[in-house]
Amino acid sequence: LRNRTQHSKFPYVVSNIQNKTTKGPLDLDNVLDTKIFNIDSLNLKVGLIGITTITTAQPSTGDISQFEFLDYKDLIITKATALRNQGCSAVILLSHVGIDCYSHSSEQKYKLEMRDIKTELPKCNEKEELGVLLKSLPANAVDIVISAHNHDIAHQWIAGFPVISSVNNGLYSNLIY
Question: Do the beta carbons of residue 146 and residue 94 sit within 8 Å?
Answer without folding.
Answer: yes
